[in-house]
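Ligand: phosphoric acid mono(formamide)ester. Inputs:
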Amino acid sequence: MVQVRNLLLSYTKIRLIDLLLMAQLKKCSELIYPHRHLLSIEDLAQVEITGLLDLADRAAETNREISKKRDTLRGRTVINLFFEPSTRTQSSFELAGKRLSADVMNMAVKSSSVSKGETLIDTAMTLNAMRPDILIVRHHAAGAVELLAQKVDCSVVNAGDGSHQHPTQALLDALTIRRNKGRVEGLTVAICGDILHSRVARSNIMLLNALGARVRIVAPSTLLPPCPERLGAEVFTSMDEGIKDADVVMMLRLQRERMSGSFVPSTREYFHYFGLDQEKLDFAKPDALVMHPGPMNRGVEIASSMAENSRSVIQEQVEMGVAVRMAVLEALSHHLPDEV
Ligand code: CP
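Predicted complex:
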């Protein structure tokens, strides 16, 4: 009898310790990411960025195993709502959600009632009524995703809003740099091309600064915003000077869909002065990484030979895109309600 009582007591103790550990673990993940949404890099503290990158690093390893599936989001619903075209971001969010066992729906915006004049908010409210847990949104207007996040009950991830923010792109870029260089702090990163229209540049400048990198922006003056130094980077209008001794050279395409009027005389001339080729890359450190968020316009901002160069980590950026989006979905899942 005494033996049974002692056995029960030790079992209860073990269960209690188990529950305490579980609660502690949940608290830790909440500490890593205390937000309900991911809208802008501006909202993240350095420790939160590092926490997400660590989580993504582990996801990247899982993604290289034969069995990639985990139960983290079982029973949860993720909706991709993309009002702008996307190859990488949309497919990697879909894959990330599926690898975490969520039900993932890709909203076909072109064939939806948006084409009949339904507003962004009405579309979002309609989807909200279907009780999704996480909404991934890309929109051509800066600020649209934040506005939508105020109207719905679920978590919202900004998958790119106009020329404002693309937070998961900056996270995957930082992860790629960290995995190749072992750190981000102290590195010189040159972001080159159409800075004026680039949400990737804005998110990257904020994130790289938060992690202690030295950030440069390199562009013709027509493709720089007014007062470019306010972005938090050193400004260059010559590729040779901007790339000199850089550890990372990140190329951006001309974002014609956001241009009104002509910003460069011709793509041929643009390539001559600002396109990355071997001659220009020689100004960077011999082990400099070549990066591009995609989609690439070969022969405009980057030579084909540079995209396929042994120093190019462009395909690894795509791979890290899935890992980072898994980490973001997992971090947000800790804030989803456990019961109705
Ligand atoms: N880098 C990026 O956002 O690519 P997509 O437009 O293909 O999603």
